[in-house]
């Protein structure tokens, strides 16, 4: 039975902050070695892929410049969505080159260097799809996403229950319930600061498919922009 996707629920952040061991992994070898071989496969089933595309078709602004963070050979946007530019940032050049939806491609290892080699305020939206569990420095990355988003831009963190287990961080493994994982992502937003209260939405297409969950938050308007918009 399809899950109701209409309601959004406020996610409360857990009280504790992040210790280094939260982000230990079973495989601590250099990520470029692990991702050196192209993997031209999708990591969720067809129903879940369709659910992601439907969600992105609803929420991405028409004409926006969009950042696909931790991108691969598919971005899962609907084919007919009229965004302006899709920028993919990932680790494997072959995978990015095989992605027909990308307009720009950036090779970058976020775990080695969370600083995004992208202009501030350029993007109307940012998306990371089924890869949040691999971030070892998520708060730093979220701060960088905030920097590159325009005021009012939204960061959509889409997750499921599949993963490369040896590369997923320890805290993700310790929270197998999707609600607790959503709370973890909300805590990343909270720690990064500069975002409105995160929202959690369940877009799982059916009980037989891979689940699809989203935690999203809007970049707050910067003080300089707020001052400039005030009437004289």
Between the first and last Cα atoms, what is the distance in angstroms?
55 Å
The outline comes out as globular
Helix content: 25-40%
- Main beta-sheet annotation: 8 strands, mixed
- The CATH class turns out to be Alpha Beta
What's the architecture, going by CATH? 3-Layer(aba) Sandwich
Q: What integer is the average pLDDT?
A: 85
CATH topology-level name: Rossmann fold
Describe the structure.
With 232 residues, the chain is α/β, with parallel strands linked by helices. The chain has one domain (9-220): Vaccinia Virus protein VP39 (Rossmann fold, 3-Layer(aba) Sandwich), CATH 3.40.50.150. Helices cover 26% and strands 19% of the residues. It contains seven helices and eight strands. The protein has an eight-stranded mixed beta sheet with strand order 1-7-8-6-5-2-3-4. The radius of gyration is 17 Å and the shape is globular. It starts with 8 loop residues before the first strand and ends with a helix. Mean pLDDT is 85; it is low at 1-16 and 226-232.
